[in-house]
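HUMAN: Ready with one sample?

ASSISTANT:
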Amino acid sequence: MDKQHIKVFIADDTLIGREGLKAILTTSDNIDVVGEGTSIPEVDRLISKTDPDLLIIDLKWFGDEQAGSRLIRDIKNKNQKLKILAITVYEYLLRDARQVGADATITKTYSREQLLSLIEQLTNDTS
């Protein structure tokens, strides 16, 4: 991964979620939002086209609490090198996300600094 330039894809079913993340991420000089998805099939399709370093994915989609975890598992089966950060308001969903392959999880109570620091840690981790 290019440590100077981090390519991020945002996956969230809500406009406010995507726009909020973009607003935070664009405050960093070394992060580019390379795409966003508003549905599970769209995210799965666009990941291969945009080749991000990191996927930030909400876990609950259109009322389905398992949608995000299913997509994480599917994506990790196809692309082990892609780092995945799962985010949610619902803390009880985080354990499942980690079990299916999320590299990190965080609740939506994060600060700008916490989010940017976590992104740096994830994308600088070569393990």
The first helix runs from residue 15 to 25. The CA atoms of residues 25 and 72 lie 21 Å apart.
